[in-house]
Specification:
The complex is a heterodimer of chains A (123) and B (366). Helices cover 4% and strands 49% of the residues of chain A. Chain A has 123 residues and is mainly beta. In chain A, a hairpin with a 2-residue loop joins strand 1 (5-10) and strand 2. Chain B is built from 6 helices and 26 strands. Chain B has a 10-stranded antiparallel beta sheet, with no helix packed on it. A 7-stranded antiparallel beta sheet of chain B has the order 13-14-17-18-19-20-21. The chains are: A mainly beta (123), B mainly beta (366).
Amino acid sequence: MDDTIKVLRQGELLFIPVKLTENQHQNLSQEMVRLKGTNCIREGEATGHKHEIDGTALLYDVTRESMYLDGNYLRLDGEMFLDAPDPVSVIHPEHKTLKLDRGQYVIRIQKEYDEVKDRLVND
Amino acid sequence: MYLETRHASVGRGFWQRCESGKIVIDNDPSTKTIYIVKNGDVQEVITTTIKDGVKEKAHTRYGVDRRLWTNGKLTFTEYYQPGTNQARKRKGEWRKHTDEKLNGTHIGTLHQYAYGGGFRKEIFKYSNKREAYNVSYGAKHAEVYYPNRKLWLKIECFNKTRIDFAYKNSIFCGNPEESSSRYGSITPKDWDYNAVIKGGDYKVTCFDEHGDIRTHGVVENRQKKEIWIEDYKQIFYLSGVAVSEKLYYAKPEDIDPQDVLQIPNVQLRTSLLQKIGTEKVLQRCNATVIHKEGDYELYSVPLVPAKDATSWRPGDTEMRLLKVKCPSTGAFFTLRVPPTSATCEEARKWTFGYRRDDAIEFIQET
């Protein structure tokens, strides 16, 4: 069985497609994700440039990385969760457009090593 | 053609031949539809609706045009290719929008032209009949004028960059809220000119009504370059990052390379690395390459341990840096990775939260 994890990337953002069962998808409780209420995934600290979703999708903050859900251990190991019922694009002024197929994605932000505490990459 | 009723009571329907004439459907007082039939085909459809006191009328003539009126005023005309039902006119004026707003302020008429069935160009004329612009889709150059003929906006594109639609159906005209670019980093007084650009290399100049430059600058590889004028003020850019005038003009030898490598913001660190030269910084910090793979390089830089280091947290004596290349801009970035990283792949996986043994495939990177 091929265990290769297929991922997509735009700058410091990693999009990891996740396969949730229908029950898991419906029962993603507020303990696990919280609706962000915006299309903006991330805004650059120095440039002010935003990674934004172009299309209809719901973007959530991951509030709990793992839990037993629907009798199974479910792991959303990332910063955000994207639920795209239709194909969407991720746009950014500097990066080329990233096209995502319909589905669910965990969005993880690239990190950097720091002697005291690892930090998320910011532009 | 024949008119036939369905779902009528027994004996109360009809089946009627109709070669020419007028069919009026007037079900409720707010909507009325008229079909005009000639030679057995519907030739024209006129629909009138009244909603919230606004009267709207649409008149379609198959193979000719479709016109829309609001409260008796013609607002939109679309021309069709003769011999078709509603196919876009292949050559010549295709759409005319009256009462259109340019940049959300100045009223005029937008004329759009087609050639070979595709969109070709658009012209905006103010209500005083003066031309604001005449721009072709995919052009490399665009100029927009104020109603008093003074230059308002000038865009020059380089390399593969082209003029594109800023709005769903137009290059320059539309509701700013519906602009295709929602990430504009410009002042609200200016055009949303970066929405008009398809690609990353261009020069823009925006004038106020007195002819003074309000915005001016160059974008290369999608990054603002050198000195910009934004809202009449000078802003200094290093690789797309606004920096102070002092830092912009600082000589590379006056900047401490160790300080640069420890700047937490990646974009700012990259800007300064580019200013000094990444190779020079690494050289002046006595960095050595410990692994190389394609565009990736893993460096080891000797460090002086932090002043607050303790016996239980001694502080690193070495910094490992992964040099990576952005697939969109081609710029090189450095990312600090754990001192235990031995290969570029391992270091890169770590930055994305994966372990050395995890098999990852990047199916798309931008």
